[in-house]
Design a protein that fits this description.
Blueprint: H1 2-28, H2 33-37, H3 44-53, H4 60-71, H5 86-121, H6 126-140, H7 143-157, E1 170-172, E2 175-177, H8 182-214, H9 218-225, H10 230-259, H11 262-267, H12 273-282, H13 286-314
Antiparallel strand pairs: 1-2
Helix pairs in contact: 1-13, 5-6, 5-8, 5-10, 5-13, 6-8, 7-8, 8-10, 9-10, 10-13, 12-13
Length: 325
Amino acid sequence: MSVFIIRRLLQSLLVVFVMSLLVFFGVNVVGDPVDMLVNPEMSQADIEATVRALGLDRPIHEQYWHFLSNALQADLGRSFIFGEPALKLILQRMPATLELAFVSLVLSVVIGLPLGVYAGLKPESRVSRTIMAGSILGFSLPTFWVGLMFIMIFAVVLGWLPSTGRGETVEVLGVGVSFLTLDGLSHLLLPAFNLALTNISLVIRLSRAGTREVAQQDYVKFARAKGLSSRRIIFVHVLKNIMIPVVTVLGLEFGGLIAFSVVTETIFAWPGMGKLLIDSVQNLDRPVIVAYLMITVLFFIVINLVVDLLYSLLDPRVRLQDVKA
């Protein structure tokens, strides 16, 4: 296991370096933030002083080297707009995004797994066909449209839930969370379910396919022949053997929930990293954009490593040394 972890860490460092090149140069060749920051009435001398203060007067390779050397010290630059460290701004918004992504992931499992197992055990029933038809809708409907419909139905027409904001929060270990308060939970439900909709459909289809395959295996038939209850067969034999693909996909999708929550956070005005990214793109705040993308890359790398380690816990037949990087 130690060899596997060391090898993956070395590979991760290489991935981070390559991505830093792509992200930094890709962001810095788009637009000119000076046009957004300077006052048209400023003199040429003041404009040049602003450019020097932002470090934009240096060649692009020197800017990258400066960024890389500072990044090794956990300094990803200062925001052009706010004048604060970009990492600080992102960390302030990160708890809101992580909370939204985590609750969405929980909803995906709590809703999708039972429905998928039921559809796999009784594939020909009318309820199962309805579940599978619903999963196709979950894949097909655009996230932004579903979010707008949620707001119109549940916030505007019925008035059951608020449409924007995060609501009341409480601090847990110094981090503000909203799902522990009734007001915060009411603000969280709509964006979390909107973000989870695609993953719910994905879990339904994965668990249905896995259940149908596992149900035909000899050990399940033997368990039935021994007279074990249906509940024990499902929880001990079926669920355990369908969880590896589900965990794999959900692990990767958790990174996707964090990275691509931009649309949901924008629609519901959720104060997370995605909303900060949209604002930074509009203002060409390059340090914040680069910092956000680099942190997202790190999320994906860490999640992939955790998923690989979970393999051996879920299925003893899997050996870490056999997992290809």
